[in-house]
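Hey, can you fold this one?
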Amino acid sequence: MLLVFSPIADRAEVQCRAVLDFFSVMRSKTVAVETVFLSFCSDAKPECWRALFEGVIESGVSELRIQQDDVLRNVGPFKSLKRHATPAQLYPNLKSFRPHAPVLFDAETIRWTLQVINASALRELSLSKQSEKASWSSLLSHFKLPSLRVFTVEGGTLSMLSLSTFLLNHPALESLYIGADSDSELKTFVPPKLPARHQVLRCLRTLEAPLSYVVHLVGAAPWGTSSRLTDLRILPDVRNGFPFQPCVEHVLQKIADMEHLSWVSIEVPQAVGQCTAPWCAVPAPAGPDPYHSLTRLVISQSGVKDAHYLFSEHFMMTLPSLLRTFSRIEQLEVEEGAIDTEAEGSVNRQDTINAIVNAGSVLMSIEIKSGSHLPRALIHWPDRDERARAIAGPGNLP
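Sure. Predicted structure:
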């Protein structure tokens, strides 16, 4: 069951008490409320909101999301926090927590927020950007979450050092999502100084993060370093302009030995998407059977959807080269901006499609999307025999 409460600012305290009464009654019921979404204004006194949140959590909910309407409120200084012993597990039923409200991280409330996080059996934690000055770097060291499996952090400053320490303290993590607007505080790319592949990749299955984080997590591992990663989604660095082309090339080289990796997705910044020269060159790795499990490649554009553009011909003609390197790709998806396909002079992707088909020897599906519209080009063969007949017969390709 999902309950959504949106208290009105001038009646917040009265409504908080009403909600508390409701959850007090629910404790005695056999049917529990499992998922709660609280959306509120922070005009009420902090102790009022804390009492409401505690009442909701203590009722036995398994998923709680808290969102604040007046998000311009400032947050407190994280650096002044002192380390405290991890409290006993007070909220064993709470498995998913999304404290997306600045009020939960101000000076009066942050200790309570940390207690809830550390005293729960959380499997999923999501942190959202609090303000332009928000920093998660000093906050992560206060988390002790042995059951955590999914961690999401959006925006703000999150140094690579702080993230690395957090990941070492949470080795059972399976999914890590870092928003494109997050700041790693990394400004330069120096391959000889990269660390070894991070230990978290021995358990992590899904990684979505800006390129500067991905480069340092993938590191400079020798061939055969253990990894359980299955899905890798690379985002451009919005905050600090980390160099895109050399970093993507480095990452694509270093994932060649990841024996479980099946899906790679790359969000491309506009400067790269409209390049006038090949944008990515990945030499064939020296190890045995590289990329042997990689079967799906997704290329899309970063930024606001309405501002999307067309990929340049140089950009598109780099894709066949990638498919020759990723020799087991079966599914290719390309998402570019919306265009008028009926307009005179409209871009024709047929030459690109033909080159892609010829380069991808096991390719079974090609999809080129135009904005939010239906695919401009869609090729799908139900089996390899049908593919062979289509390619052998002139004019059979769409």
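The chain is about 25% helix and 20% strand. Let me know if you want another pass with a different chain boundary.
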